[in-house]
Fold these 2 entries.
Entry 1:
Amino acid sequence: MDFAVVSLFPEMLAPIAAHGVVGRALERGLIGLDTENPREHAEDVHRTVDDRPYGGGPGMVMKYAPVTAALDAARARMPKGSPVVCLTPQGRVFDQAVAQRYAKLPGLILLAGRYEGFDERIIVDAVDEELSLGDFVLSGGEIAAMAVIDAVTRLLPGVLGDAESAVQDSFMQGLLDHPHYTRPERIAEQDVPAVLLSGDHAQIARWRNKQALGRSYLRRPDLLEKLKLNSEQQALLDEFLKESGIEI
Ligand code: 9D3
């Protein structure tokens, strides 16, 4: 799968290209990653990419001409059927389902903004979808673009090793993960739960499931509402709540 990022700060992408899962996927040719800078498409002597907003107010707006020219240049190198996804606080919130949909595409053109935002006509003419990471303020779209590249790359065939793929991500199940422990068995009077030392794999799986359901209920009730628990899961959750001394 090919990624292109249109950004005024293309150097920001270098670290994800150099490390970890994405770095390895690039080395192995499982993904492509290139950048296009709207600055290089600005026609005036000052290489202007932003301008003052009509109607007044603070901040600057990214100009139509250099951004759409950069998108055209990126599109020319990308496989047909690669949508333009704009990272903006106005987008729908990125989640694992969106990542799974993108992982089936031949390519993705990610448009990262700076300043107050884009001239709306860029969105109308050249953007297929708008995405946000959630309700907090970033300084631009680059970190969001990197999050999308990372989440999508992990889903591509051959990217993760068998061990990593076998461990189904918690969000794949729609639940938070269960607690994890490693040596030593006791740390400052906190013991590893006995079941994890028992060697009884059915009981361990049951305990982990119960913890995942309980934590999701307490911390992310929105996840549980989407999930619609079966009777076995409901029984595990009831058991978790009883053990925690929580009234339903
Ligand atoms: C303080 C500026 N805000 C005025 C109300 C608007 C604003 C403009 C541009 C806020 C953030 C940004 C830059 N953010 C992104 O480009 C961005 C983003 C984000 O800020 N939060 C979550 N997801 C994303 S995706 C892109």
Entry 2:
Amino acid sequence: MILEKGKAALLLGMQYGDEGKGKLIDVLAKEADLVCRVQGGNNAGHTIWVNGEKLTTHLLPSGVLHEKTKLVIGSGVVIDPFVLATEIKNMISKGVLLSPQRFFVDSRAAVILPYHRNLDVSREKLRAQNANQIGTTGKGVGPAYASRAFRDAPRMAEFCVWDNFLQWLDRHPHLAEDLDESAISSLRDVSAFLAPYIKDCAMVANNALASGSKVLLEGAQGTMLDVGFGTYPYVTSSSLVSGSCAGGLGIPPWAIKRVLGVIKAYSTRVGNGPYPGEIEGTFAETLRQKGHEFGSTTGRPRSVGWLDLVALRYHVRINGLTDLAIMKSDVLCGVDPVAVVTAYKDKRTGEEMRGFPVTIQAWESIEPVLEFVPGWSSLTTSKGKLSKEFSNFVKKVENFVGVSAIYLSTGPDRNAGIWR
Ligand code: GDP
Ligand code: IMO
Ligand code: MG
């Protein structure tokens, strides 16, 4: 496993989100002392299946079901207090221990208010008029990060001391525009409910590391949605790359010893933007149904595509991946052949592109080169070894990107997977 005493390990999505991070965090959390969300907000939806029961987390770290593991939401996360309070209450009603001794929320995390949610929706409507809608989740995540950069978003420290929050609204009256009396009253209840959870989580994490705890950082979204290195402007609003994740918690970057990248054996994307290797037509629909590819947060159908090894190789370097996990290969059982994207070709000249596209114009000028490999009818043989075809697929991925796959997920359940 990737967790070491006194060190941190980071798990990151390596595609367009929804790679199966939640499942793997749940698997790893059993051995972790502290699991921490470090960026994003409730635009994330992380699914865990245990004994046929499905659980989706949006803000709570996906280690929530392992009660000996402590949980942190770091300062880099933006928090919709209503969503967080509802998630906590739901979890408690399921009998999960979620006390302020187990779960901590950083006092510096910025707060998503109704103003931010409304702005998210209205900006999307405006973009739609100019045919450049991003397809955001509409949760107010982008406007909340922008508001923090403008230095007008309250943080949990301000929000959870009610008089301070009222003063904040007085000083930033635009934030109160969408708040009627009943909204204010609901916010007051939520503020009081969340107050006991507020801590300096940078210190919680650093103290945990110093005392020899195993710390696991749970990335949200996926590196192709990174605001810096993704398919800008069709990206989320936060920095997702490994270099930023230490800052989203407040630990030194050198404390992160392993960076585990998670991919599907194919790919999916929700929202708009470039998507090399996208599959269309009836086969896409078959794959979508078979993989249950519908957004965990918005329920939108996910576009599906082949695994893009060019993008993966690029992001292996940006993120310094030490390990890889391949999820959902079971969904491709019976698909023959299976394709992977191994080059980007210039549509006009037919020549292989050097470098990685940056502008939308550059993305539009490329055509993915597909390489076909024999498909598999099962992942393992009757003796429990990897089937020849699946093993060759895994080797192909590993050789192309230069990182070993240490985990192969074989189904949604927490027990369905192979450690190598
Ligand atoms: P996340 O955002 O990266 O946590 O991923 P999501 O939870 O949004 O989406 C991943 C989906 O794939 C969920 O429905 C998981 O239950 C499911 N899943 C995860 N691993 C596997 C796997 O190996 N096989 C199958 N069939 N489903 C998986
Ligand atoms: P998890 O953690 C998939 C996408 C949205 C949209 C773009 C911007 O579950 O992998 P935003 O609401 O962030 O401003 O939307 O980013 N997006 C995700 N897609 N999984 C996610 O999270 C996502 N979080 C944001 O669909 O294209
Ligand atoms: Mg998801």
